[in-house]
Amino acid sequence: xxxxxxxxxxxxxxxxxxxxxxxxxxxxxxxxxxxxxxxxxxxxxxxxxxxxxxxxxxxxxxxxxxxxxxxxxxxxxxxxxxxxxxxxxxxxxxxxxxxxxxxxxxxxxxxxxxxxxxxxxxxxxxxxxxxxxxxxxxxxxxxxxxxxxxxxxxxxxxxxxxxxxxxxxxxxxxxxxxxxxxxxxxxxxxxxxxxxxxxxxxxxxxxxxxxxxxxxxxxxxxxxxxxxxxxxxxxxxxxxxxxxxxxxxxxxxxxxxxxxxxxxxxxxxxxxxxxxxxxxxxxxxxxxxxxxxxxxxxxxxxxxxxxxxxxxxxxxxxxxxxxxxxxxxxxxxxxxxxxxxxxxxxxxxxxxxxxxxxxxxxxxxxxxxxxxxxxxxxxxxxxxxxxxxxxxxxxxxxxxxxxxxxxxxxxxxxxxxxxxxxxxxxxxxxxxxxxxxxxxxxxxxxxxxxxxxxxxxxxxxxxxxx
Length: 466
What we know:
The protein is of the alpha/beta class. The chain contains 15 helices and 22 strands.
C-alpha cells in the first residue's frame, strides 16, 4: 500500500502571550522535529506545518486543508495553547480529525491536549485522540489505523450497490434496508432484475466470446467438461457472456459493488454465475489488470458491504465471500458454493500463476448447468469479518486467522468442486456459534483488526473481536 497523505495543523501559544510563545519556541521546535521524523516514516507529510496562533489563522489554514487531497488532518498541540482556537478551527474543517500531543516534561503539551480535547467534545466535534507521544512510533501506527478507517468511511459515502435479483434461497441475512444504508453508510442500493443480465448476455458478439473462451482454455489449470451435460463448451460460452454482460451493467448503472442472486432463476434457467463472480472480484480479468469489483454470491447485500469495507481498508485488495462449511476447535473449513477470486489460490501478482491453480469443474447443483471455480486457498494471514444485524441494528464480528495450504485431494472430504480455505483460528467455537449471525464470512489478506476497530468506533457500530 502507498503512503497515506495527511495534513498537520500546529496550535502554538496565542498571539496575545508573545513572551510565553518565545520562551517555549525552542521546546515547540524540538517536538515538531520529532513529530515530523516519526510520521514521515509512515505517511506522506508536508514538511511545512502551518502554525496557528489566532482564530483567523485557524480559519485560513482550515480552508487550505479542506481543498487539498489529504486523507485526514492532525491537530498537534506541542505546548500549552488556547483550546478555543482549536475548536474554532476544527469546526471549519471538513476532513476527519485527530488530536495529538507529546509527553515531554517541559512542554505542558498534555495540559493543552486535555483542554483542547475537552473543548472539541464539549462542542460535539468528532475527533480521534492519539494517546502515545506523537514522536513515538506507536503513535504513527495508531494514526495509520485510524486514517485507513476514516478513508474507508469516506469512500463508502456516495457509492452504489447493485442488487441483481433479490433474496436467494430464503437467506434473510443477505437482505438490506436501503434507507438504513443511505443513512448510516451513505450507500445507495440499485435494484436490477436478473433478466437484464440474460438479455445483455444473449446480445454479446460471438467473436468476443470466442476470444474469452480461448484465453480461459490457455490460462486456467483445467477446464473439466463433463459427459453428463453438466458443463459443456456451450455452458462455458454462456458463463463468459454472463461476465461480459455484468461488466456492462456495472458500467452503465455506475455500480461500485454488486451482488448476483443466481439461485435459482439463473442457476436453473440460464447458467451458473460462478465465473462472473470470480472474474469481477479478481484484480484482473481476461483482458488484463483491473481494480477488483466486489461481487457477492446470492445477492448477499450485507456480505457485499462487508467485502467493500475490507477492500477500502486494505487499499483495494481482493476480498471474498465464503460459506462456513464447518467449524471445530481445530479450525474452519470455508467453502464458497462455487466462486472466489482466483487471486487467493497463490496470492501472486502474476495472474497466470493464480489462474493456473483454478479448475473449472462441473457444479454440484443448478439444472441449467455450468462450472465452479475450484482451488485450495494459499497459506497466509487473513482478516475475517462480517457485518450483520441484531434487532435491526448493525454489528460487526471479526478475527484474524491463518490459512493452511492443503493438497487439492483434501477437498474430496468436503465438496470436490468448491474453492476452499482451511483456517486455523483463536476462537471459542461455542461462543462463535452462539453469537455470530450469518452463514457467510468474508476475508482479505493481511491483519486489519485495528482498522476494523476504528471503523466501528467512527460509525458507532458495536463489534465483537473473536
